[in-house]
Amino acid sequence: MNYLKEGLVNTLRAVKEHKRGFLWLIFLQIGVIFIVLYLAATYPMKVLQDVDAVTQLLQDTNYNATSLLSVYQQYLSMVRHITELVTWLMATLLFPQALLWIVTNQLMEKKSEPRSWKTGLRQAGKSWVKYLASVLVLLGIPTAIGYFMIKYVFTLQTEDSIIMLAKVAMILLGVIYYLLIGAFTLMGSPSWRVFVSDFWNISIRRLHQLLLVMIINGILISGIILSIYLSMTNESLFLLTWFSSLLLIAALVLTRMFLTGCVQVLRIKEYEKSHN
Question: Which pTM was predicted?
Answer without folding.
Answer: 0.90
